[in-house]
Design a protein that fits this description.
Tetracycline Repressor, domain 2; homodimer; DNA-binding; 197 residues
Amino acid sequence: MNSTDTRERILQNMFLDIRKHGFQGLRADKVVADMGITKGALYHYFGNKQAIGKAVIDEIIRPNYLAFYHELDQSNDNPIPRLKEHLDYLSEQATDEDVTLGCPLNNLVQEMSPLDEDFRLRMKNIIDLIQQSVAAALERGKKAGFVRAEVDSQAIGRFFFSSIEGSYSLGKVSKSGAAFKSNMELLKTFLDGLEKP
Amino acid sequence: MNSTDTRERILQNMFLDIRKHGFQGLRADKVVADMGITKGALYHYFGNKQAIGKAVIDEIIRPNYLAFYHELDQSNDNPIPRLKEHLDYLSEQATDEDVTLGCPLNNLVQEMSPLDEDFRLRMKNIIDLIQQSVAAALERGKKAGFVRAEVDSQAIGRFFFSSIEGSYSLGKVSKSGAAFKSNMELLKTFLDGLEKP
DNA sequence: TTGACAACATACCAACTAGTATGTATCTTT
DNA sequence: AAAGATACATACTAGTTGGTATGTTGTCAA
């Protein structure tokens, strides 16, 4: 097991613990202790607690969230079915246990935005990219004749993302994947309304 | 200044600090120190930190959030304009500064749901009441001929609340009241689609 | 084969944090 | 007016938290 392995393993476990306890609730030394290693290893790879949080956002959360939207950016298909497929994919993931832990990005946004400007900007960047990706896909869809011309793509981009995050929030407090899925279904019918008849 | 005043003042300041720093980030002794009083007063009124959180939820957040929906429960008007008016009201409140601090309920939901089952259930109760209130209003609206018969009132109740919370989330990370308002406008047009033509 | 560096382990610590124990002034009740 | 009870203030503390200083061991190039 080489050094990058250890770093990756630490990061993964930090990610999981942050999702459960929040960043402020993260006890980094306990996490590594549970892994069978010590603070020596931890502070060898990360200068301080903040660096752990940043690495989790940049190296785990960001690529995971942007994967779908990078694909979307490449596509010239009708964006409406594409977006709906993504919502279906999120619904599939949404077990009670998963939803109960909340959306990792949303969790951090809520907790850290007012506390740390650096964290906030990193997360805002991810969210902006998602919105822009959706908006751009809708604009391409307009040109290709899939999407109604009067649609405000920017506004839909915001609303789309917000609805997903809000649904995670509801699912979290309800401990209910079903509540999340119900909202995804409604969001899909909302998207249908954007399609050119 | 009588005793209840002091208790109320403590609670208000705790509410504000929790909104900024989260419950885990709350430094109760610092808050009272900034008020010019000491831990003696604090622990005279509240047994421990948990009790502060519960009192904030029950005595500040809950009545504040339920006020509109209690009114809604009483009304037999067309619920669609009513709900839209509420969204307008939320939009008016939504300055950049306000949105940046986030929705107090959503903040706590995100932070505390996985950490404290008692907190979670108190918050879930508030949210359930909101959803039920919206759903019941839509059902009355159906009977009175305002609302399309095929509307799934329960699902709309969930989606309505989730959209608002998600919009606060977006506004918070963006530090933008405008983003929140944009979403409220979209949610209003969504509500319009539920009305009987 | 040696020396330099990476990859950890161990032992410590200062600051913080929630909470307690105890004291005191004021107010209320009898 | 005496006797609690209430409303705080002050001083202390045990446990926690994030972090550091200093090892030790393996690796790998010169």
